[in-house]
Write a structure and sequence with these properties.
348 residues; 56% helix; 4-stranded mixed β-sheet; single chain; alpha+beta; two-stranded antiparallel sheet
């Protein structure tokens, strides 16, 4: 079972990391702003192909090695877990090194070709379109929090009947493999973590709903549709994640309170089901939506707006990853590279 789990994780990780350059906005290449006129540059395309090919090859090598050690040798489970983690970090480190290299090359290419120097740089934000988005209302995200608070109250009422050792970690087979002594804090620690995560989801959804719709200066109509669709899918994805986490953590809490609440089969199947649904939902979200809705197809024909491009704020992005701008009041900004998502923290 542990072999299958690690293989699934590494296959997923390899595919996502290799596909990242194709999932992000065309106007952001390895963390560098590229004017719409030059997004199909052959050099940039070759950078993306090399990144994806090397990442894919490293991932495939890791998959073969893991399968060989998992099915063709008698390694102890602890040793196999360490090897699996090393392979995962190797894929991530490889993709990180490749990213930094091509970030430098893309920056150099942009500077040498003087892209955007003769174009008017503008920032287009549509505040009116916020009323047309289909994001879930924030109070919906608060509903799982009510369930968590109810579980906390129930846990407190059952404190005296709970075991002296409280599970703090569960292994791949669904059975607890780490414990802490019972205390008023330890019995609800899992639920407090869940409550914090739920609160973060509410905050992110609220901030996103209040933020303006950032449009592509050269493709305002189509980018408006993509951004609105992106906000909708992101909201639903976050809500699905919140619900699944609430079910999983609530289930684990109930098994802690009532030891016979679920059999060994259910203890293994439910976490695996959670893991599988999250992987499938993430894959759908990444390949269907893309960064900022870049993969969403639209039938809108944009009127040509020659001579303009998006505002170039590369100077505020350190290595294209960390956003540092003391004059920007935003708490979160849209990330430029990495896992497909919407926000990264703005550093003051």
């Amino acid at each position: 079972m542990i072999v299958s789990i690690f293989l699934a994780i590494i296959i997923f990780l390899t595919l996502i990391q290799a596909a990242i350059p194709r999932l992000l906005k065309k106007t952001i290449v390895f963390g560098v702003t590229i004017p719409e006129l030059y997004v199909e540059d052959e050099k940039l395309s070759s950078y993306k192909k090399i990144y994806s090919t090397i990442t894919l090859l490293v991932g495939l090598l890791g998959i073969l090695l893991l399968a060989f050690w998992g099915f063709g040798s008698q390694l102890r489970e602890e040793t196999f877990v360490i090897i699996g983690l090393i392979i995962q970090f190797s894929i991530l480190i490889t993709s990180m090194i490749l990213y930094l290299y091509f970030h430098i090359q893309t920056t150099k290419r942009k500077r040498e070709m003087k892209w955007g120097e003769n174009l008017k740089k503008v920032r287009v934000a549509d505040l009116a379109s916020r009323s047309n988005d289909e994001m879930l209302p924030s109070f919906i995200f608060a509903l799982p929090m009510a369930i968590t608070i109810g579980l906390i109250v129930y846990t407190v009422s059952q404190y005296s009947a709970m075991p002296d050792m409280i599970p703090t970690h569960w292994g791949p087979n669904g059975q607890p493999d780490a414990f802490s002594e019972k205390s008023p804090f330890s019995v609800i620690a899992l639920l407090l973590i869940l409550l914090v995560v739920q609160g973060m989801m509410v905050a992110i959804n609220t901030f996103t709903k209040k933020s303006g719709v950032k449009l592509n200066a050269a493709r305002r109509n189509s980018s408006r549709i993509q951004q609105l669709s992106f906000r909708k899918y992101t909201s639903w994805f976050m809500f699905l994640t919140t619900v699944l986490l609430t079910i999983l953590f609530g289930f684990l809490q109930l098994t802690t309170i009532h030891g016979e609440f679920a059999g060994s089969m259910m203890m293994m199947v439910l976490p695996l089901g959670f893991f599988l649904i999250i992987l499938l939902a993430t894959a759908f979200y990444a390949f269907k939506v893309g960064q900022g809705g870049s993969r969403i197809k639209t039938e809108v024909i944009d009127e040509e707006t020659p001579g303009i491009t998006d505002l170039d704020d590369d100077q505020y992005w350190k290595a294209g990853v960390f956003y540092v701008n003391k004059n920007d009041p935003s708490i979160f900004v849209e990330k430029r590279f990495g896992s497909v998502g919407r926000l990264t923290l703005a550093i003051r």
